[in-house]
Every structure is written in C-alpha cells, then in structure tokens.
Design brief:
Blueprint (H helix, E strand, L loop, with lengths): L1 H22 L5 E7 L10 E6 L5 E5 L5 E3 L6 E8 L5 E9 L4 E3 L2 E2 L8 E4 L13 E5 L1 H6 L17 E3 L19 E3 L7 E4 L2 E2 L1 E3 L6 E3 L8 E9 L12 E6 L12 E5 L7 H6 L7 E5 L12 E2 L3
Parallel strand pairs: 1-7, 1-8, 6-9, 13-18, 20-21
Antiparallel strand pairs: 1-4, 2-3, 2-5, 5-6, 10-17, 11-12, 13-14, 15-16, 17-18, 19-20
Length: 309
C-alpha cells in the first residue's frame, strides 16, 4: 500500500512538472475577429499567418462568432491573410511578433470576389489589448549593438523599466561562466527571486546551500533573438517566483545563410592605471581575458579565462 501511494505521488509530481513547463509559453500568439462591413461575425473565414523569413504558414478558420486564434509561433515578422466566400481577401502585410506577445489583429472584410486582394500596409496597433502583462522587450538590434560585460545578454535586462541591477561579485559576476552574481536583479522593488526562462523552459537552479538561485545556461548574444522582462501583472502561466520573469528566445533558422564569429580580448596594457594607484606607486595588475566565439578551453597560465560560448 505504501509503495502504491509513493508511486501515485511520483506520477502526479511528474504530470504537474510537465504542465508547468508546457504552460510557460515564450512564443507569440495572434488572435482577433473577422467581421463584414456591418460588423457581423463571419464564421468559417480562412486565416493564414505566414512567417516572412521562412515562408512557413499556419492556417485556421474563424469560429461561429468570427473569432480566430493562431497556435503559438516563433517571434518574427508575419503577414496575415483573411479570405471568405463573397468577400475580398485582405492582407495585413507587416505584423511584428515579439517574445511572449499576445497580439490582437481584427479584420473587417469588404464585399467582392475572393480573387480581389486588399493589402493593409500600415503597422498593426502597438497597444497591447490581448494581455494584461506589463514588461519591456529587448530586441535583437539592442542585443547586437549595446555594450555588455562578458558578452552576457542577461545583463541588458537592466535597461528595462523598474529594474535595478546589483551584481553579487562586481564585474566577475557578469561573466557567463561564473555562476552567482548575474542574477542580482531587483524588479519593481521586489526582493523575491526572479524566474529566468530559455525558450519557455525554466533556466534557473537552486544553489547547493539552498540560499539562492543561479542561471544554469547563458547563450552567446549572437544566438539570442530577443528577451522580455515581465515586471508585474504577468499571466498565471508563470509562477515559481516572487519577483519578475525574464524570458529569452533563441534565434531560429531562416531561408538565408547566416553566421558569426568573433574574438574579444582584454589586456592590462591597453588600459590606463587609476590615479590613486599611480600616486601610491602601485602598477596596473596583469589582466588577460580572451573571449572567442566558439567552444574553448578554460584558463591557462598566459591566456586568462577563455569563455565557453
């Protein structure tokens, strides 16, 4: 009997854990309504959402109330095409989806032949009407151009509203291979632990002493599509935290070839000594830091720390 109770408990725990992982969706969703010129719902209308970078299309039909909802898709630029018998087809040509977006795109179709096409080139509204979450998205342009210590993209979360960054070990806490310190974000004044997600999967682990958490994996910025810092009022799908939620998405493939390579170096000979050390006759300490863009070795006698990327 005792064995059965333990077995049932383990099965329930596994199911609940799986539910948590599946529920933390980092992809984007498009939803909306399709109506006729008088505002009446159009059931059975065909709605196609196409990724402009990969040409991958997802198609659904509107409900009896004219509602539609596209299954989660990767962040990127999309076109949305709506067609129905007796109405002109309508295309929203540029819909930008970002990590964790819940975007509402409504359509009002005009009477006419389905072979006729109306193209809407204006950007979709920036007002978030499908979700109550409040947060800031750090896009790939910012990740590519903003300076970051140690090439650690998580440190850019400091630029989000309501975030204060307090690294535990000064600059060394920002290096991707040094666990401890890079998680020191206070979001909207909360002292609770923050939740870090990687493509929707929890990316944090408890320390051996149980006194805190650390980020388990830090991807190089070249592999990051974007990430979102949710400060408060985030949906109930997120949990396990008394602070904020930082959800990061990795880049996915496209139809164009692309890649990157880099080698960053820091040397004490390239920096000036500070005034107080010069006054005291203390020379600048020897410092070497090599950071290549491929998997490397860890510190040697002359090479300093070589980052794992």
């Amino acid at each position: 009997m005792k064995f059965k109770v333990i077995f049932v408990g383990l099965v329930l725990g596994f199911c609940l854990s799986a539910g948590i992982i599946q529920g933390q969706e980092s992809r984007a969703i498009i939803t909306g309504t399709v109506t006729d010129p008088q505002g009446a719902a159009i059931p059975g209308a065909r709605v196609e959402v196409k990724n402009l970078a990969t040409n991958v299309a997802t198609t659904v039909a509107t409900s009896e109330r004219g509602l539609y909802s596209i299954p989660p898709v990767n962040p990127g630029n999309y076109s949305v095409t709506v067609s129905a018998p007796g109405f002109k087809a309508t295309v929203q040509s540029n819909v930008e989806l970002r990590v964790g977006d819940r975007k509402e795109v409504d359509f009002k179709l005009e009477l006419g032949s389905p072979t006729e096409m109306i193209t809407v080139t204006a950007d979709a509204t920036l007002l978030e009407t499908a979700s109550a979450s409040v947060g800031t998205t750090i896009g790939r342009e910012a990740i590519a151009n903003l300076p970051m210590m140690g090439r650690n993209p998580f440190t850019l979360a400091r630029y989000a509203g309501g975030v204060q960054y307090n690294p535990g070990r000064a600059s060394s806490g920002e290096r991707p291979f040094d666990n401890g310190g890079m998680e020191g974000f206070t979001i909207n004044g909360s002292s609770g632990r923050n939740e870090f997600l990687l493509d929707g999967v929890p990316n944090t682990a408890n320390t051996d002493t149980g006194t805190g958490t650390y980020i388990t994996f830090v991807p190089p910025p070249d592999a990051v599509s974007e990430f979102k810092v949710s400060s408060n009022l985030y949906d109930s799908e997120y949990g396990r935290t008394g602070g904020g939620v930082i959800s990061l998405n990795l880049k996915s493939g496209t139809n164009a070839y692309h890649g990157s390579a880099y080698w960053y170096q820091r040397r004490n000979g390239w920096n000036a000594n500070d005034t107080s050390s010069n006054r005291a006759g203390i020379p600048l300490a020897r410092f070497r830091w090599n950071q290549p863009g491929d998997p490397g070795r860890r510190s040697g006698p002359d090479s300093g720390d070589l980052q794992r990327c």
